[in-house]
Amino acid sequence: MISQRGGLVESYSRPWPGGGLPSLSGSLLIFGGADEYDTGGEFFEDTQVEDMIARVDAVLGTPDVLDNFESEAGTHFWRLNNRLQLGRLTPEQVERVAGYYEEVKAAHPGHAEMIDRYRFVAGNLIPGNVAPNITGTDTDGVEFSLEEYRGNIVAVIFTGQWCGPCRGEYPYHRFVLENYGDRPIVLLGVNSDAELETARQAKIDENLPYRTWWDGHSQPDAESAATDGPIATAWNVTGWPQIYILDEEGVIRYVGKRGGEFIAALDELHTEMRMRSVGSAPQGIVIPASRPRPATKSN
Length: 299
Hints:
disordered C terminus, alpha/beta, five-stranded mixed beta sheet, two-stranded antiparallel ribbon, single chain, 12 helices, Glutaredoxin, disordered N terminus
């Protein structure tokens, strides 16, 4: 019963890749709960990585998956990456996971593009990797990049006013803005609302003035949610909200932390940053969360 409820919660907060209801294959809980895989920022054991790969591989050859490989396999790859993002991978483990995706691609060449998207996540968006840069325009139409905020702890928040679970995170974002103004902590949003005015008004109504890329501009026909924008697509975001927490060097440290765990992760990284800076000169300019650094438009 507990595992069934956990599956329902996960499906609510993270929509199924490809949309719609999950099939029999998609309904199989091939992984245990997230707590079983959360390493607390430590490296996975090799046996854990092998076990996760084996669980996915066991279902890829089932008729349900083979009949609709693009959608069904994507669901299981998403689950694999989701679990991998709960810990860190050694270089050898990164190669092992990449090798597995290559094996699957060789067996299913007609789905190479889809497989490569999930391989990209496993190779670039797992804790321990420097986050890919993001460049886009904010809700005022000014271009800026993620790399401009290097030297600060950064939370990249994929969100949208259309998304109930996203709105449920707003109180925690406000807590950071209101209480961590003297800390080098920055919140940056990636908004998926179809209308720019919706994104702008949400910042006012919800008292969330942190800087946000508007990612909905590429889908002019979308009614409310524009979740296939260039940034969300590049980061292969298939469930909303999604949150990446980076340290001051731009390294991904946590993925998917929400609620109180989001606050705790920021506190932990700030403590680490302070300990490293003891006895050393300040590195760069501190950009408090409540006063985002103005961008300089690129030429």
